[in-house]
Amino acid sequence: MKTIGILGGMSAASTQIYYATLCRLTQEQLGGLHSPDLLIRSLDFATIEALQTKGNWEAAGALLNREARALEAGGAELLLLATNTMHMLTDTMMEGLSIPLLHIVDATANRLRAQGCRKPALMATRFTMDASFYRQRLEQFGLQPVIPDAQARDVIHGIIYSELCQNLINPASRDSYLDICADLQRAGADALILGCTEIGLLLNDGNVDLPVFDTTQIHCEEALRLALA
């Protein structure tokens, strides 16, 4: 098994999900006492969030690059960035590295295409929904992402940062998310991308009418496949 390097802490809740998911998937696939070979660098999300809020993406990219280099130096053979939003900085993050990065959008887009979905709704942080990096990468795979309106984007983002990133689960917030999902379906969406790693704490196949593509689950499944190849 190749050593998977996880650059996380964005948020800690997300990284906990990554670790638990990779452990579960490895045990299901290999059985016995097997667990994944991992290196995890978990950052202080308060530092990252402050840079996001200030729009200081240059400093954030430099920070990710430094930490990614540390993971490679520590023996990582495959890199995962355990966050959707910060994938906007992958070009900067990977400067000078020789190990591959498994891009979360690529893994998700391939799964959407394989299941015949073409117009996925995207629920994510405001940074991800407002910026073009995520949409354009999906479009490169022939997909037509459906983005929530401005008011819905504010609701989605607020719940992520004030609740989910702090492991706070609020049934009323789940209901708000489900109302937004229904609006997106009426707008023509044929699938739902959980484009923030924490949204899976509220939404899943059991409560959403659309096919749900959980980026964290997909990212982990593809990472384990590559690690065992």
Structural descriptors:
229 residues, mainly alpha, Rossmann fold, 2 domains, three-stranded parallel beta sheet, 10 helices, 6 strands, 51% helix, 11% strand, globular
Write a concise synopsis of the structure shown.
The chain is mainly alpha-helical. 51% of the residues lie in helices and 11% in strands. It is globular.
SSE topology:
Layout: E1 4-8, H1 12-30, E2 38-42, H2 45-54, H3 57-73, E3 78-81, H4 90-93, H5 104-114, E4 120-123, H6 126-130, H7 133-139, H8 150-162, H9 171-186, E5 191-194, E6 212-214, H10 215-228
Parallel strand pairs: 1-2, 1-3, 4-5, 5-6
Helix pairs in contact: 1-10, 5-10, 8-9
Description:
- Helix 1 (12-30) packs across helix 10, helix 5 crosses helix 10 (215-228) and helix 8 (150-162) packs antiparallel against helix 9.
- A 3-stranded parallel beta sheet has the order 2-1-3, with helices on both faces.
- The protein has 229 residues and is mainly α.
- The protein has 2 domains: 4-103 and 217-228, Rossmann fold; 104-214, Rossmann fold, CATH 3.40.50.1860.
- Helix content is 51%, strand content 11%.
- The chain is globular.
- The protein starts with a strand and ends with a helix.
- It has helices spanning 12-30, 45-54, 57-73, 90-93, 104-114, 126-130, 133-139, 150-162, 171-186, 215-228; strands at 4-8, 38-42, 78-81, 120-123, 191-194, 212-214.
- The protein contains 10 helices and 6 strands.
